[in-house]
Design a protein that fits this description.
The complex is a heterodimer of chains A (118) and B (114).
Chain A (H helix, E strand, L loop, with lengths): L3 E4 L2 E4 L5 E7 L6 E7 L5 E8 L5 E2 L8 E7 L2 E6 L8 E9 L7 E4 L3 E5 L1
Parallel strand pairs in A: 2-11
Antiparallel strand pairs in A: 1-3, 3-8, 4-5, 4-9, 5-6, 7-8, 9-10, 9-11
Chain B lengths: L2 E3 L4 E5 L4 E3 L2 E3 L5 E8 L6 E7 L7 E2 L2 E6 L4 E6 L8 E9 L5 E3 L3 E6 L1
Parallel strand pairs in B: 2-12
Antiparallel strand pairs in B: 1-4, 3-9, 5-6, 5-10, 7-8, 8-9, 10-11, 10-12
Classes of the chains: A mainly beta (118), B mainly beta (114).
Amino acid sequence: GAVVSQHPSRVICKSGTSVKIECRSLDFQATTMFWYRQFPKQSLMLMATSNEGSKATYEQGVEKDKFLINHASLTLSTLTVTSAHPEDSSFYICSARGSLAGGTDTQYFGPGTRLTVL
Amino acid sequence: AQTVTQSQPEMSVQEAETVTLSCTYDTSESDYYLFWYKQPPSRQMILVIRQEAYKQQNATENRFSVNFQKAAKSFSLKISDSQLGDAAMYFCAQGSNTGNQFYFGTGTSLTVIP
């Protein structure tokens, strides 16, 4: 079964509005969560790394004021796209680093969120 | 700079046959691990197989196995008895065991021919 959930799976919004995406680790506590962006037929581009209780670390070229990340607990991280514009339309994927019972440390991915900005 | 390279953008295999997907990486770390992830049309990233760099034995998971050549920094994935459900994008990735660094390759699109 899924170990990382992401909500919503799809969202359509008007230009200028803000959108919040939630990422939850279901079966383990994740001290570190990651946010990726993926364009069609391309690889995942890391946007930021978030650690519980501290500020996120953003990759070069990613606007931290536009993509707000909050890692409020060991099982929840949120990505808020502020004042969204059509060029922000993309597929956003979160992942959580941790280990299931008896397992090894691994990155588990959420199912992704398709954001469309009109 | 740490990089992961997948030199085959597309591959195809006949159903029930075997296919090997290539991956090379470059890292200065000594403690790391390697992954193959599968991304089907649903776009859910699915962990296929994982290899600890300190382990010499190649990881296997049912029909999936790797050929890990540490000195050559090569980490290929072999899929045996290919099935239609294996059709997907496959991403090779390298992660740090001591930090949060995680690097993806550009992916290989695998087509399985019935």
